TrEMBL record:
It comes from the Bacteria. The lineage of its organism: Bacteria, Bacillati, Actinomycetota, Actinomycetes, Kitasatosporales. This is Nucleotidyltransferase domain-containing protein. InterPro entries: RlaP.
Length: 244
């Protein structure tokens, strides 16, 4: 089975991410699409395994196989967790609905290290831009402020909200370069301090609910295997056996 076929025929969840999901889209914004596909279980039984992710087939489209997606979500990968909380859902089946119902199981204090680690990496890139060009890439600076805000609020409330809401104008002013780099640095430092304080009183558990996610993945793989077996029997003209 071709990778594009897995995305086309076996996607369980697909959404729009990026500026459009964050409430920061402008006329020139791309439409970033992300998704999760469930590779049929028999594909894992041979030597050649299905891909863990697929780029395309559309422009700005990227999808993960369910197991890989869950692994990254359990590690509190910021991009994956935000994908689970997109307000712009384009495709969803029953398995996808169960995945979304598990959103809380993936959230833990691990988010502090993963979000701040990602933020530090992005900050180093901005600092390099300032040294090389005298100014950062303002769009990237805006998104870093948004990420830091999201991390702080997640630790404070135990819930992940990716939309900027009524702060849209404030963030877009940064994107347009209307806020000085010194002021942006000050905001970043303040958000980092607030995030550290939020960690000490966060309602998030120390670890994600691995058992709940593992049970979901096991049941989903088992259902896929049984469905494939039943479809094969139908094709062979054999009546499927009753499940007890």
């Amino acid at each position: 089975m071709e990778p594009e076929d897995l995305v086309r025929d076996h996607t369980i969840y697909a959404c729009v991410m990026g500026s459009r999901a964050f409430g920061l889209a402008t006329e020139d914004s791309d439409t970033d699409r992300r998704g999760v596909f469930l590779a049929p279980t028999p594909l894992f039984w041979g030597f050649a395994k299905p891909p863990t992710h697929v780029e395309g087939p559309g422009e700005e489209q990227f999808s993960w196989e369910l197991e890989r997606f869950c692994e990254l979500a359990l590690r509190a990968n910021p991009n994956i967790l935000e994908c689970l909380h997109s307000p712009l859902v384009e495709r969803l089946d029953d398995t996808g609905r169960e995945l979304l119902a598990l959103r809380g199981a993936f959230l833990s204090r691990r988010a502090h290290d993963s979000f701040t680690g990602y933020a530090l990496a992005q900050r180093r890139k901005l600092d390099a831009d300032v040294r090389a060009h005298g100014a950062p890439r303002w769009k990237h600076a805006m998104h870093l402020l948004r990420l830091l805000t999201s991390a702080r609020d997640l630790l404070r409330t135990g819930e992940l909200t990716i939309g900027v809401g009524d702060r849209r104008a404030e963030f877009l002013a940064v994107k347009r370069g209307e806020v000085s780099w010194a002021e942006v640095e000050s905001r970043m430092a303040r958000l980092a301090e607030e995030t550290e304080r939020a960690l000490h009183g966060t309602p998030l558990p120390a670890e994600p609910d691995h058992a709940r996610v593992a049970d979901f993945l096991f049941r989903t793989r088992r259902t896929s295997a049984l469905r494939t077996h039943a479809d094969h029997q139908v094709m062979q003209g054999v009546a499927p056996a009753r499940q007890r």
